[in-house]
Specification:
CATH topology of the largest domain: Aminoglycoside 3'-phosphotransferase, Chain: A, domain 2
Distance between the termini: 54 Å
CATH class of the largest domain: Alpha Beta
Number of strands: 9
CATH architecture of the largest domain: Alpha-Beta Complex
Number of helices: 11
Strand content: 15-25%
Strand order of the largest sheet: 1-2-3-5-4
Shape: globular
Largest sheet: 5 strands, antiparallel
C-alpha cells in the first residue's frame, strides 16, 4: 500500500467491502488513483475471483451539502439505466465512512475515451451526428426515469447560483443586471423530472460505437428538462468547436433539440430553451468566478484556477450576446 492510496483505503478493506458482492475469495489488485478533485476521488482496480478478473472503478469522497450522497448516485443511475440510459453497472455503494474512510461507490469500468479533444479528432461528420443523437436519447431516458422515493431535492438554478454569488461577496454589473433580467422574464415552469445536473462533453465515455456511458452524477436533482439541454450547449463544452456545432461541439443546437424531441416524444419550447441557455451561461460565469476565488484567497493556489477565473469576462460577453438576440438560434 502506498501513500497515494489515501488514509483509510487499503486493498484489504476494499476486499472486505466486495466479499458480499463477489464472494469470499475476492482479491483486489492494481489499485491506482485516477483523479483527485475537490470533492470526489476516482480509483481503478481489478477484482479477481476464481481466476476471473474484473476491471472496476471506485469513487470516494467526504459528504457535503452540494453533492449527492453515494447511495443516491447509485439509485438514480439504476433508475436511469432502467429507462434506457447507458450508465456504469453499479456493484455497491455506501454513505457511511466506516468501511473505507469515506462514503463510496463501486461500479464496472467501461472502455472508451472521455478527453474531449481526442474524441473530436476521432469523429467524422457521421460520427458527430451519431453521438449527438445518442446524447439526446440519453437525456430523454434520464428525464423519463422514475424520480420518486430516492430522496432527490429540487433545485431552482437561478436562485441557487444567485445565492452562491452572494456567499462569495463579489459580483459585476453585467452579472447583476443579467440575474435581474432573467428573474423578471422567467418562462412558465415545466414539470419536474430527474435532472443529471452536469450532462456535457467530458462527463461521457465514448467508444467506437458512440456513447458508452454517462458519468459524474453527483449533481443529480429534480429540475426542468431545459436545465440539462441548455448546459450541454454552452460555449465552454464545445471545447473550441465553432458555433455551428453549438451542441457539445457535435452539431447544431437545433439538430440536438429536434433529436431530443424525437427521443422524448415531447416539444421543446425554443424561447424557454434560450432563457435556460442564458441561465446556464451565467452559471458557468459564477463557477469561473468561484474558481478564481479559490486561487486568490490562497485556499487552492493554482494557475489552472486563475486561468478559469479569467473566463468570467468571456462569459459576460456570451450572456449579453444571448440577451441581445445573438448566439445559437
Amino acid at each position: 500500500m502506498t501513500h497515494r492510496q489515501g488514509a483509510g483505503l487499503t486493498e484489504e478493506r476494499l476486499e472486505a467491502v466486495l466479499r458480499p458482492v463477489l464472494g469470499e475469495d475476492v482479491a483486489v489488485e492494481n489499485l491506482n488513483a485516477l483523479t483527485g478533485g475537490a470533492s470526489r476521488t476516482t480509483w481503478a482496480f481489478d477484482a479477481v475471483t476464481a481466476g476471473e478478473r474484473r476491471a472496476l472503478i471506485l469513487r470516494t469522497g467526504p459528504p457535503d451539502d452540494v453533492h449527492a450522497a453515494m447511495e443516491l448516485e447509485a439509485q438514480v443511475q439504476q433508475r436511469a439505466a432502467a429507462a434506457g440510459a447507458r450508465v456504469p453497472n453499479i456493484l455497491t455503494a455506501d454513505n457511511s465512512p466506516a468501511a473505507l474512510g469515506n462514503p463510496f461507490l463501486i461500479c464496472g469500468a467501461i472502455a472508451g475515451e472521455t478527453i474531449v479533444r481526442r474524441i473530436q479528432r476521432a469523429l467524422d461528420d457521421d460520427g458527430r451526428t451519431r453521438l449527438l443523437n445518442q446524447c439526446a436519447q440519453a437525456l430523454a431516458a434520464i428525464h423519463r426515469a422514475d424520480p420518486d422515493g430516492v430522496g432527490l431535492t429540487q433545485s431552482d438554478q437561478l436562485i441557487e447560483w444567485r445565492d452562491r454569488l452572494d456567499e462569495m461577496g463579489d459580483t459585476t454589473a453585467t452579472i447583476e443586471w443579467s440575474f435581474r433580467y432573467l428573474e423578471a422574464n422567467r418562462p412558465p415552469r415545466s414539470p419536474l423530472v430527474l435532472v443529471h445536473g452536469d450532462f456535457r462533453m467530458g462527463n461521457l465515455i465514448v467508444d467506437d460505437q458512440g456513447l458508452a456511458a454517462v458519468l459524474d452524477w453527483e449533481l443529480v436533482h429534480l429540475g426542468e428538462v431545459y436545465e440539462d439541454l441548455a448546459w450541454f450547449c454552452i460555449r465552454a463544452w464545445r471545447f473550441g468547436a465553432p458555433e455551428a456545432l453549438g451542441a457539445g461541439g457535435l452539431g447544431s443546437v437545433e439538430r440536438f433539440l429536434t433529436a431530443y424531441e424525437t427521443a422524448s416524444g415531447t416539444t421543446v419550447d425554443r424561447d424557454a430553451f434560450r432563457w435556460w441557455l442564458t441561465v446556464a451561461t451565467l452559471r458557468w460565469g459564477v463557477i469561473c468566478r468561484f474558481q478564481a476565488e479559490r486561487h486568490l484567497s490562497g485556499q487552492s493556489p493554482s494557475v489552472e484556477l486563475a486561468a478559469i477565473g479569467r473566463r468570467v469576462s468571456e462569459t459576460e460577453w456570451d450572456v449579453l450576446d444571448l440577451l441581445e438576440g445573438g448566439g445559437p438560434r
